[in-house]
UniProtKB/TrEMBL annotation, chain A:
<dbReference type="InterPro" id="IPR001851">
    <property type="entry name" value="ABC_transp_permease"/>
</dbReference>
<keyword id="KW-0812">Transmembrane</keyword>
<feature type="transmembrane region" description="Helical">
    <location>
        <begin position="46"/>
        <end position="63"/>
    </location>
</feature>
<keyword id="KW-1133">Transmembrane helix</keyword>
<keyword id="KW-0472">Membrane</keyword>
<dbReference type="InterPro" id="IPR043428">
    <property type="entry name" value="LivM-like"/>
</dbReference>
<feature type="transmembrane region" description="Helical">
    <location>
        <begin position="94"/>
        <end position="116"/>
    </location>
</feature>
<feature type="transmembrane region" description="Helical">
    <location>
        <begin position="354"/>
        <end position="372"/>
    </location>
</feature>
<feature type="transmembrane region" description="Helical">
    <location>
        <begin position="201"/>
        <end position="221"/>
    </location>
</feature>
Automatic annotation (TrEMBL), chain B:
<dbReference type="InterPro" id="IPR028082">
    <property type="entry name" value="Peripla_BP_I"/>
</dbReference>
<dbReference type="InterPro" id="IPR051010">
    <property type="entry name" value="BCAA_transport"/>
</dbReference>
<protein>
    <submittedName>
        <fullName>Urea ABC transporter, urea binding protein</fullName>
    </submittedName>
</protein>
<keyword id="KW-0029">Amino-acid transport</keyword>
<feature type="signal peptide">
    <location>
        <begin position="1"/>
        <end position="35"/>
    </location>
</feature>
<keyword id="KW-0732">Signal</keyword>
<keyword id="KW-0813">Transport</keyword>
<dbReference type="Pfam" id="PF13458">
    <property type="entry name" value="Peripla_BP_6"/>
</dbReference>
<dbReference type="GO" id="GO:0006865">
    <property type="term" value="P:amino acid transport"/>
</dbReference>
């Protein structure tokens, strides 16, 4: 087994650092201050960051490497969630079997859908996957209501069998998902001065899975298999003419990314034991495409950044309402305050889609490589400046 | 690679740091200081208003939010007090709840259970809300209710009409003031029998999801008990916008009544299609063809325009009611916003007052204490007459309104007229009624 190159290792360590210290990084503002609105360090959102990060990493293995744009990836996420919740209902509240089953089930579904869809490429492939996903959504929403819970979603109940666990806790409640006795929703608060940092078991579980998935993605990117996938992206026809059958490679990539989606779905259900059909809707599939492109398709870290970006907007910006805006600008004269609030209002609260859309457009127009390209540009700009400033007269001056 | 060594050490260091970071807080943990989730310790208490601000029910969500803001104003002693003056319980003083100023946070459910749960979770985990309320669909209500049960906060359901919310999916921490499918059926059937006779043949078009199923079942069983016959019940996809292909077979079936178990945009479209097909001018079996819509809302009536004229349906509450509570609410809502409130606004306003009152009477925000104060509680003066919060399933029992599309509306809000106020006895059912079977309340959860 070859070890990682220095760059990849730095990247992995950076991701590990960011995820493990997320409770600090995401809560930069003290509790109770006006800026606390922008804190994102609460368990649910942190979990979402890493879960959608995993989802996007998996999607990127397909889209970023082979260029096959799947518009139905949320279907695998949904299937994974349903599998996990059924495991909670029937077997036990331990998350391990649930997640294993969700990965397997998502893998089977992606094998089936991939086998059919990969007969076509380009837009036809996208439409096929979209059609399959919408079909699965429609089935889950109504026809399969006994299995999926339909509109209400699949939920746990007090009278579920749970063969290896208990149907209900001694207090008469539904048990919560856990890992050998550690409950996923348990958290510890650390108060430092006026800052409060929350450490959640479920989050750290997801974070470890993210680091592992990220490592696996690096290996896939750097492997001969990954090279083959990139070759498919650059010129599939030429590969076919050389007598190479690319279908097995693309199918493998499709199944792997489907399994990633299933893993994300299983984790989602483990953090919050409910599976709803909306998870499979085309908007959810479109979201992961946005995440990947926003962050930088084909790069390793890009999709994770994109996922974090979109989830931040969805959860933080959507909660700013007019009252909060008025509070912020209360120091201004009344007329001006109302004017500024009126201008900003369409972009916050329910208008978060608008803000995100504008940002997305700017990224696509000015940074076609996504946020990662933005980072690279800033770095090269800094380096250029340093090298220019660094030796104006060739000697190093001591700082004064 | 020679660099691997150093970085591995770096990794180990990171791991050790993270480990100590994890272990440290167990010493300083503040969790045990709280007796229940989000115990309010300061001078204020936060409630979470989780309503659809985008998506198909955004209009209803906006009206719910208006009602919540009004309720907060009244609870904190502002405005004219609204229904606080007519409410039979006088525990609330207009100085907040238990002397704490009431604050609120809002979130967007997007009418998706996932988004609704995410938003409710952030209210509980980030903003410290002790109670979550709102929503305009049963799927969301059931999902958020289960979440609140897990997290140990109270859920006061907004607009949710499916039997399941207080039937198979009921939870000890969840409470519903709104009426349900069974009540609609039970209230509508006698009125329909009076108006249209007892030997009708009904054809159901049902939206293909949980609410549609329970409504169809409820209307079907109560009309069949009156002597009606059900010719067919056809499910329509929720995303359907053109119902012509579903309407055409209705006439061939020999049915003389069409029942549209649709809500929101579905109902607007299916009713419009049915009227355009001229169903209402037809004669079948020697009777005029009729259309019935089991659940009405003002926004739907507005969307369907002139097509609703003369069509029967049911609602939870209507602003034209003349009791003191309704008048007080319509007055303060109208003064603040310039138009009358919808039934969604009413139920949300009432739920907030009921929660606040229960806390005040219980003397604690602890969910179990609040639940105990609400269970079996009888009250009056909140617009629906004498009402009981039944302990067995946390459903409110009150009079139900049977309404009809108004022939000569005087304004865009005056679209429905009340045909009958069905007394509560007629819509009451046993807690173990087959349409509500299969669930268990469980025990209330205080969280930690």
């Amino acid at each position: 087994m070859k070890s990682l190159t220095k760059n990849d290792l730095t990247l992995l360590v950076a991701v590990a650092f960011l995820t493990l210290f997320a409770p600090f990084i995401l809560n930069p503002f003290p509790e109770g201050s006006a800026m606390a609105q922008f804190n994102a360090g609460y368990p649910d959102l942190m979990q979402r960051f890493v879960i959608f990060g995993i989802f996007a990493i998996g999607f990127n293995i397909l889209f970023g490497l082979t260029g096959y744009l799947s518009f139905g990836h949320a279907a695998f996420l949904g299937v994974g969630s349903y599998a996990a919740v059924w495991m909670f209902k029937l077997l036990s509240m331990n998350v391990i079997p649930a997640i294993i089953l969700s990965v397997i089930v998502a893998g089977l579904f992606s094998l089936l859908i991939g086998f059919v869809s990969l007969r076509r490429s380009g837009i036809y492939f996208s439409i096929l996957t979209l059609a399959f996903a919408q079909m699965m959504f429609a089935l889950a929403y109504s026809v399969l209501t006994p299995i999926t819970g339909g509109e209400t979603g699949l939920q746990l109940a007090l009278d579920d069998p749970r063969i290896l666990g208990s149907s209900q806790t001694p207090e008469g409640n539904i048990p919560v998902p856990g890992l050998f006795g550690m409950e996923m929703r348990d958290s510890f608060d650390l108060e430092l001065g006026s800052w409060v940092f929350t450490f959640n078991i479920g989050y750290y579980f997801c974070a470890l899975v993210l680091i592992a998935s990220f490592y696996l993605a690096i290996r896939i990117f750097r492997s001969p298999f990954g090279m083959m996938l990139r070759a498919v992206k650059s010129n599939q026809q030429r590969m076919n003419y050389t007598g190479l059958n690319t279908r097995p490679y693309t199918l493998a990539a499709f199944v792997i990314s489907g399994m990633y989606a299933g893993l994300a779905g299983g984790l989602m259900a483990s953090m919050d034991p409910l599976a709803g059909a909306e998870r499979m809707q085309w908007t959810a599939s479109g979201e992961v495409v946005l995440m990947t492109i926003l962050g930088g398709a084909g790069t390793l870290i890009g999709p994770v950044l994109g996922a974090g970006f979109i989830k931040y907007f969805e959860n933080i910006f959507s909660k700013i309402n007019a009252t909060i805006l008025h509070e912020w600008f209360a120091f201004l004269p009344d007329g001006l305050e109302d004017f500024i609030v009126a201008i900003l209002y369409p972009f916050i609260g329910k208008g978060w889609h608008l803000t995100l859309g504008i940002l997305f457009m700017m990224v696509v127009i000015f940074l076609p490589g996504g946020l990662v390209e933005g980072g690279q540009r800033i770095r090269s700009w800094l380096q250029a400046r340093k090298s220019k400033n660094g030796r104006p007269n060739g000697t190093t001056e001591p700082a004064e | 690679m020679s660099k691997t060594d150093v970085s591995r050490r770096g990794l180990l260091k990171t791991g050790a740091l993270a480990g100590s970071g994890l272990a440290l807080p167990t010493i300083f943990t503040a969790q045990s200081a709280h007796a229940y989730t989000n115990e309010p310790t300061g001078s204020s208490v936060t409630l979470g208003f989780n309503v659809p601000q985008t998506g198909p029910y955004a209009d209803e969500g906006a009206d719910e939010l208006r009602a919540y803001q009004l309720a907060i104003e009244h609870l904190n002693g502002g405005g004219d007090g609204g229904m606080l003056n007519t409410f039979s319980s006088k525990a609330l003083q207009g100085n907040g709840i238990l002397g704490k100023e009431v604050k609120y946070v809002t979130g967007d459910t997007q009418t998706k259970s996932d988004a609704a749960r995410a938003s409710a979770k952030s209210m509980i985990e980030k903003d410290g809300a002790v109670m979550i309320t709102g929503g305009s669909s049963s799927g969301v209500a059931v999902a958020v209710q289960a979440l609140c049960q897990e997290a140990g906060v109270i859920f006061m359901a907004g607009l949710t009409h499916s039997n399941d919310t207080t039937g198979k999916d009921k939870r000890a921490n969840g409470f519903r003031h709104f009426f349900n499918s069974y009540m609609s059926g039970a209230a509508l059937a006698p009125v329909l029998a009076n108006a249209y006779g007892k030997d009708r043949k009904a054809y159901h078009l049902t939206a293909d999801y949980n609410w549609g199923y329970t409504t169809e079942e409820a209307v079907r069983s109560s009309t069949e008990a009156m002597g009606w016959e059900t010719v067919a019940a056809v499910k329509t996809p929720l995303t359907q916008t053109d119902f012509s292909s579903y309407i055409a077979p209705v006439l061939q079936s020999g049915a003389d009544t069409l029942i549209l178990n649709h809500y929101g945009g579905n109902m607007v479209n299916s009713l419009t299609n049915a009227v355009q097909f001229g169903l209402r001018d037809k004669q079948v079996n020697g009777k005029d063809f009729q259309i019935v819509v089991p659940l009405y809302s003002r926004l739907m009536a507005k969307g369907a325009g002139a097509n609703v004229k003369g069509i029967f349906g049911s609602t939870n509450w209507h602003w034209s009611l003349q009791d003191e509570g309704s008048k007080a609410f319509v007055r303060s809502f109208g003064t603040k916003y310039g138009f009358p409130p919808s039934q969604a606004a009413h139920t949300c306003y009432v739920q907030t007052l009921l929660y606040a009152d229960a806390v005040q009477r219980a003397g604690s925000f602890a969910p179990c204490a609040v639940a105990e104060a609400l269970e079996g509680y009888e009250f009056d003066g909140l617009g629906n007459g004498k009402t009981l919060y039944r302990a067995e399933d946390h459903q409110c029992f009150k009079d139900v309104l049977v309404v009809k599309g108004k022939e000569n509306p005087t304004s865009e809000f005056d679209l429905l007229e009340i045909v009958e106020v069905t007394p509560v006895e007629q819509v009451t059912y046993a807690p173990d009624h087959p349409q509500f079977s299969g669930g268990a309340l469980g025990t209330c959860n205080n969280g930690a």
